[in-house]
């Protein structure tokens, strides 16, 4: 088409082609100057910005203040899974979920959303862990609310025949019982948690578990019930006959990089630990069995001691492996001190037993010093070791050092759990009353409207109720 803008003038197109102009004087295109376009666009953009600003600030003509971005909406289970992963991967030894049997908790993020009971239990558990990591000493009301909600959801799942026997439900019951350690106001309820778990195991474990996750849950619960915890302090917990189906269930293997390191170490034996409550309650009738178990514990203790001496660097570099070894070592020391004290009463002239007791007490101090960095969540069985040693040692310097270590571990998870069991232990050692905060719960329970002297008398009376005098004579240790 002709691009001439003036009538009577030949356009450039027609002039180039040497043809007559067609449509002379009809302007077909108009090209804008760039500078003019930029200024026009700038004015338009400024006008648009003012309009947008007016919409946000209500016509005041200034942009809104910048603030921190809000968390995007998401599924609550996703946030729980994020917390679990964060706690599992935490490099702080004392605030890592590695202390709570990682072979079990590693499987939990992927199980969220399939069980209401497990979801509610983990919501309470992660909230309580966050509270422990904060600088506040008081319990977060939100954590308590989540715990109460978790209890209610678990009760509904247990009442439902379909969900009662599921591994997720059993795992939820185990986690709720772990939560109670942090929120305990009345330690009598801790007894009910343990008895409830024992009842669940009795009704659900009729044969050796085939599911790998169920085996992990069963081992975790069984370890709590038999390893110097519930079954020793609570005579109402019945381990037979269901525990016989778990005799061949060993502790799940640690992470692959630790398998070689732990393959030659002694592992917890469920049959061996399950014998201990009956041995402590009836020592005279079981003297031969006590001696056999004691020799086995001595051998395991020696193996662990040699391993610690030969692998100091390896243990300091491998956090999980170090926590595992310290926990086992603490259990062997506590059991060894317990059986040693009983055998010394039965054989008062045995000098070797006195020497071995001193060795156990010294090793308890070394262990407690080494495991300090594992506070507050780890250091399992360390409180049992140092409290047991403190109850039996006759050396004043050793006793003073152990007393200080007991104070150092006062605010740990393992000590809180031990206090729950001691609070309703009817034949608790009299020496424990020298530690004021060891009897706070019992005193509070018995002192409503009574003075301290009356409370102590009632506490003493409780120690002899429901238990034979013979048992009390030998239970001078944990």
UniProtKB/TrEMBL annotation:
<dbReference type="InterPro" id="IPR053178">
    <property type="entry name" value="Osmoadaptation_assoc"/>
</dbReference>
<feature type="region of interest" description="Disordered">
    <location>
        <begin position="55"/>
        <end position="75"/>
    </location>
</feature>
<feature type="region of interest" description="Disordered">
    <location>
        <begin position="446"/>
        <end position="467"/>
    </location>
</feature>
<feature type="compositionally biased region" description="Basic and acidic residues">
    <location>
        <begin position="455"/>
        <end position="467"/>
    </location>
</feature>
<protein>
    <submittedName>
        <fullName>Transcription factor Cys6</fullName>
    </submittedName>
</protein>
């Amino acid at each position: 088409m002709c691009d001439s803008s003036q009538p009577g003038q030949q356009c450039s197109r027609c002039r180039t082609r040497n043809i007559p102009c067609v449509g002379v004087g009809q302007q077909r295109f108009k090209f804008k100057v760039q500078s003019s376009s930029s200024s026009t666009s700038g004015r338009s953009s400024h006008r648009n910005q003012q309009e947008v600003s007016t919409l946000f600030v209500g016509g005041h003509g200034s942009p809104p203040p910048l603030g921190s971005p809000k968390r995007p909406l998401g599924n609550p289970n996703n946030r729980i899974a994020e917390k679990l992963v964060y706690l599992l991967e935490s490099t702080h030894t004392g605030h890592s979920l590695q202390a709570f049997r990682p072979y079990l908790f590693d499987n939990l993020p992927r199980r969220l959303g399939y069980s209401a009971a497990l979801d509610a239990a983990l919501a309470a558990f992660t909230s309580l862990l966050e509270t422990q990591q904060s600088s506040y000493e008081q319990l977060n009301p939100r954590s308590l609310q989540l715990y109460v909600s978790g209890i209610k959801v678990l009760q509904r799942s247990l009442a439902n025949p379909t969900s009662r026997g599921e591994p997720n439900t059993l795992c939820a019951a185990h986690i709720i019982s772990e939560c109670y350690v942090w929120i305990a106001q009345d330690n009598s309820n801790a007894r009910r948690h343990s008895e409830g778990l024992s009842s669940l195991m009795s009704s659900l474990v009729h044969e050796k578990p085939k599911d790998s996750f169920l085996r992990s849950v069963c081992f975790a619960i069984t370890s709590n019930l038999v390893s110097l915890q519930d079954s020793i302090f609570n005579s109402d917990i019945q381990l037979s006959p269901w525990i016989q189906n778990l005799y061949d269930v060993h502790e799940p293997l640690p992470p692959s990089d630790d398998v070689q390191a732990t393959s030659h170490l002694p592992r917890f034996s469920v049959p061996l630990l399950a014998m201990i409550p009956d041995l402590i309650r009836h020592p005279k009738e079981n003297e031969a069995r006590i001696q056999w178990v004691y020799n086995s514990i001595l051998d395991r203790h020696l193996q662990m001691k040699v391993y610690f001496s030969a692998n100091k660097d390896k243990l300091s570099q491998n956090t999980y492996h170090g926590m595992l070894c310290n926990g086992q070592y603490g259990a062997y020391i506590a059991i060894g001190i317990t059986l040693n004290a009983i055998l010394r009463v039965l054989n008062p002239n045995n000098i070797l037993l006195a020497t071995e007791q001193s060795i156990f007490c010294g090793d308890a101090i070394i262990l407690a010093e080494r495991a300090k960095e594992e506070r507050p969540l780890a250091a399992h069985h360390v409180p049992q070791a140092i409290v047991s040693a403190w109850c039996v040692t006759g050396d004043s310097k050793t006793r003073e050092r152990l007393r200080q270590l007991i104070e150092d571990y006062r605010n740990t998870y393992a000590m809180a759990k031990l206090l729950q069991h001691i609070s309703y232990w009817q034949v608790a050692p009299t020496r424990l009353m020298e530690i004021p905060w060891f009897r706070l719960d019992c005193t509070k329970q018995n002192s409503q409207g009574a003075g301290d002297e009356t409370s102590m008398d009632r506490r003493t009376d409780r120690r002899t109720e429901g238990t034979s005098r013979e048992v009390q004579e030998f239970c001078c240790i944990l």
